[in-house]
Amino acid sequence: MGVARPQHLSVLYRGPLSSCNYACGYCPFAKHVESPEEHRADAQALARFLAWAADQACALSVLFTPWGEALVRPRYQEAVTRLSHLPQLRQVAIQTNLSGHLAWLEDAGRDKVGLWATYHPGEVTRERFLGRCAELDRLGVRYSVGVVGRRSHLGEIEALRSALRPEVYLWVNAFKVGPGYYTPEDLARLRAVDPLFEVNTRRYPSRGQACGAGESAISVDGDGTVRRCHFIARPLGNLYAQPVAELLRPRPCSRPTCECHIGYVHLPALGAEEMYGPGLLARIPEGPAWAEPSAYLARAAQLMPR
Ligand code: SF4
Ligand code: SF4
Questions:
Q1: Which of 1-15, 120-134, 164-178 reaches the highest mean pLDDT?
Q2: Which of 41, 134, 218, 224 stands the most exposed, by the fewest C-beta atoms within 10 Å?
């Protein structure tokens, strides 16, 4: 009997590239400067992944989650563009600091592109970052904007929220340095900016829970090693060694907790699909849903009652 083809597969791709043009103090990645050989290896790995994607018959969504900033590199701009024109591609998203130029998006299938854009106060001015957002608006490209929720960023976060169009979702990643970091007043301010902030403040006890990672979503690295998610190191196999469907099946989570958006959104009990719809990978909630998040917040609270 053949292996059933998945109806839709989300692929989180993270190649070897691990450099960045910014130097955020809170970033554990991107401290590397690639040699020409390392750039070549990253380009080859990316080309191989694109060829694989073009060859797939099932519906795909792809999120690039580089160890650094990839979108300043023409090869990643071309990768997003090429993927966006594949008929089986539902969405292509990429995490970016939005520092690179954006004119290349003119050639992309823009209705399929979603940018996960993070603002890093201290590395870029708010005005410059907002200028890039305005350019995305002009191009008709959807995006979410996010900030790391350090207490020292609070004023900037609020100013950014006021300056963005109301339809643009601004997420805040909780700065998870231990209990007591935020005062009740900080929490109220952050919830006022990001109605879904609460969901990101928890470490969900995930061991034994059903999770779509490894069944409807996978993580792939540059050499094709497939893992169920970025947080569980054990490989499932290799993308280029057999049909991917052979690697997919339901599995309970083996980690004690799951605390990143790119992980916990695959917990069916959270119902993130309902909140984000096709914008799930780029963290872009469906317009009306995030203005009325009570059902989503209630499901998150059930997963980890306080
Ligand atoms: S922009 Fe992102 S990848 Fe680059 S240093 Fe800052 S947090 Fe790290
Ligand atoms: S719950 Fe999180 S850590 Fe566990 S399998 Fe799913 S994505 Fe991975």
A1: 120-134
A2: 134
Q: Is the pLDDT of residue 5 over 80?
A: no
Q: Atom 4 (ligand 2): residue with closest C-alpha?
A: 253
In a domain, residue 207? The reply is no
Contact 144 CB / ligand 2 (< 6 Å):
no
Distance in angstroms (rounded) separating the CA atoms of residues 146 and 47: 29
Q: Are 216 and 8 in contact (CB under 8 A)?
A: yes
- Counting the structural domains of the chain, the total is 1
**Measured from the CB, is residue 229 less than 6 Å from ligand 2?**
yes
Domain containing residue 110: 8-191+217-242
- 186 domain-assigned: yes
In a domain, 232, yes or no: yes
Residue with CA nearest ligand 1 atom 6: 24
Count other C-beta atoms under 10 Å from residue 283's C-beta.
Answer: 26
Model confidence at 292, in pLDDT bands (50, 70, 90)? confident
Domain harbouring 85, CATH code:
3.20.20.70
CA of 20 to the centre of ligand 1 (A): 6
